[in-house]
Automatic annotation (TrEMBL):
Residues 126-165 are annotated as: Disordered. One of its GO terms (molecular function) is RNA polymerase II cis-regulatory region sequence-specific DNA binding. SMART domains: HSF. This is Heat stress transcription factor b-3. It comes from Thalictrum thalictroides.
Amino acid sequence: MSHDQFDKELLEYVIKKSSPPPFLLKTYMLVEDPATDVVISWNADGTAFVVWHIDEFSRDLLPSLFKHSNFSSFVRQLNTYGFRKISTSRWEFYNEMFRKGERELLCNIRRRKAWEHKLVRSNTPIQMTMVPKENDVDQESSSTSSSSSSRSRSNSLLEENKRLKRENEVLTSELTSMKNKCNELLKLVAVNTNMEQQDDTNMNHDQSPMLFGVRLNVSSMSKTIRPVEIN
């Protein structure tokens, strides 16, 4: 091998060693991008990153950078570079050389050889290195979706209950008003009936015969006059 060729290969080796793997660089850029913080972002102290929404991450972000939409494959890639899942309640991944604002540390992360990866898997607690199966991810997504759907149904039922309560109050008010009006109408009918009866009485009184300027009560006379029996 010539001296020039040796220098060229050495330079390529140095450049290769000083540049982080594309997977790590893309992942770092994704976590750093504030536009995607709702889906993926750093944790509170910037020592690890969290995938907040797996569905959106798999559907929208993975295909744009990694040409696939398989979240399990993404997690397996992280494991080969020494990342660990450090939370049981969320998808939070940690590597001591993967820190917020310290991009230069990425060059220190190296892909593990197959035998090293198996050794770590056998000596590390399952929770830290276990790769989630696709059905596990689906179950978690399904659980989240089911929970959201339940909350949505619950809210919908509450709104429906409130609406029915308001309608019931309106109907009760209208019924009370109708009862009051009905009672008033009955009172008017009763008053009118009494007035008509009084008018009839007065009219009958006016039609009674008069004797020497005095009006006679025929009905009273008819009651007091007895037929005379002739013996």
